[in-house]
User: Fold this.
Amino acid sequence: MAIFLNENSKIIVQGITGAEGTKHTQRMLKAGAKVVGGVNARKAGQELDFTEFDPDAMLTVYGSVAEAMEKTGANVSVAFVPPKFTKDAVNEAVDAGIELLVVITEGIPVHDTAEFWAYAQSNGNKTRIVGPNCPGVISPGKSNAGIIPADITDSGPIGLVSKSGTLTYQMMYELRDIGFSTCVGIGGDPVIGTTHIDALEAFEADPDTKAIVMIGEIGGDAEERAAEYIKANVTKPVVGYVAGFTAPEGKTMGHAGAIVSGSSGTAQAKQEALEAAGVRVGKTPSETARLMREIAASF
Assistant:
């Protein structure tokens, strides 16, 4: 099994005609994902030929998410939309009632993200938003929604949730012989949709996920809150890694949310909170992978 995304997921791409949308549609199709159409109001009615990557992938560009869903039965959207248009694109997908929306776009104003997240909540949280500024969701061997490389790991019993895209890829590769049920890149912006806790809850409920890797980073208190959740609700073994042990105070490191203020948001504080919840925390990604290997030996 998998969480959020499986072999039956039907994907549309908002911004499919742009350079990034086109490139990653090709990559998703090569990975076996069922991409069934695209959305661009200004280019509605165009037919895009992706049959080089999937014999059935002659894809129509629709004028809206609602139309695309009606014509294709899509239940997942991946948004490759410029930052200034992303809020409208997300709200459109929420209005249409798409089940899963993966927002890849980087550089969205935090105010816009807060607004569209609040809008989704006010509409009953019917749409699961992953991101923004994230690599997406992959269930290896089943489907791929986003920009995560599909050829670096296999399916298996590990669940992975991560703030960092590149560390997601490294962990997938290091544990490729064991494999993953689903890998979720939640993004590192100050305001995001799906959180560590959301993914932990889903992995806990998935009978085929036997252990979980959680990757966090400096800044905010998401990892501390996740630690509290793990202690109270998660029965499966969890290993963790927190990026940023050597980050200087007050300097943004990579992601907009990765900034330490005083003792708040430090890697050390996050590690201590996780270890207090029974999570084994590695000092490096490779050490974290070794900790998971020790656990996987008992599967």
Summary: The domain at 152-296 is CATH 3.40.50.261 (Rossmann fold). The chain has a mean pLDDT of 94.
